[in-house]
What does this fold into?
Amino acid sequence: MSRLYKIMSKTSIWVVFGIIVCSSIISQPVSALLSSDPVFRSTNGILAWDPFDCGVSERTISDSSSTLSGNDSLEKILRFYVSKDLTLEQAAGIAGNYKQESGYNPAVIQGGAIADASYKPVNGVGFGLAQWTWTSRQAPLVDLAKETNRPIIDFALQLDYSWQELTGKYAFALENLKETTTPDRAAYVFHRDYEGSADDEITVRRVRGGNAIQIFEQYKGIIANSSTENSATTVCSGTGESRYVNGFTFYNQFDSQWKDAAYGESTVGEAGAGPAAMAMIISTLTTSVATPADTAEYGAGHTPSTLVDAGRGGSATNIHSVIGSHWNLTYSYVGNDVERINQALRSDKLVLVAGSGSSPFTQAGHFIVIRAVTEDGKWLIGDSNGAAGEANNEKEWDPEEIVSKMGTQKYGYAFSGVN
It folds into this structure.
């Protein structure tokens, strides 16, 4: 099977390496850029409409600027989370917590004061819908407000930020929440894994769980679960080979053009698997070309950084949101669910996963891109790990072999391009 490798040097010259035949490839936004109903897209903040082989559709909503619908704050909260593939029961569990934390008011400061648009969060003092208390969680909210030119008390901003956390550092909380089937259980799990207030378990179940039940009963005949939620839980029986069997942009993190480029206190060659994987995704899905040096520079320099820490190097599990958002990619959590990953691949998406152990991962931990599923259900990957990676890129992988090495964190995100 032929492989086309394309790379761009700092002088913007295309280089083709290996023994290959060069053909003209232009990375273009895929069909996911189109919506079948532009009015519906505009009303609901939908940026993409992706047809699956099994006859359902997925809506990808911008993580940086959501358009909210609903008659009041509570309904807007519920519709926001239902649009993100959650059931109404799960959304009610979140809302039951927000009612206790802030009364659905994004300007509330712990103690009852009301913030204005110039408010700067204070470490140790809760603020906003979820009463974010510590700088580690307040600072990224401030950053998102600046990046999207919205005041910190903006309602949609805070919902967007909650989703940024739930698909990043708190992906485990989202995964556990998606396993709940009743509003009171959803409220308990969301509090346990995401909110973490000083309330004891009895109080949480009685107050927050009680809130969630009341909310669900109020809206169960008004808000239906989204088609995206149904598609995520329905096994897609469609077969066929997905898009990026060929025409995929591979990068070797040890290429001489960038292996010595800084990634914090380390280098791309030593610790840059994450930036290299993101560069593959960006350069394949969009009209932009980003090298591992580009993504490493941005990831390490941005707040929050994608580095685990400045001394040890390596990439943290916010790399999909920090780098992906900067290059205008949309993403959704798929974890280590083989069917959901196959659905994403068959709808022209690419999936970033992390794991450790034997090939295609490393003992210290490694990021790879799952780029395609073959007609017989095998996976093709993009691996930046030098000669070993090039060999891995030629193989067809049993999905179970890969997901078994993804660990308890089950880090997996499907990407679409939007630029």
User: Anything to note?
Assistant: The chain has two domains: 7-24+237-417, 73-231. The radius of gyration is 22 Å. Confidence is low (pLDDT under 50) at residues 1-64, 227-238. The longest strand covers residues 366-373.
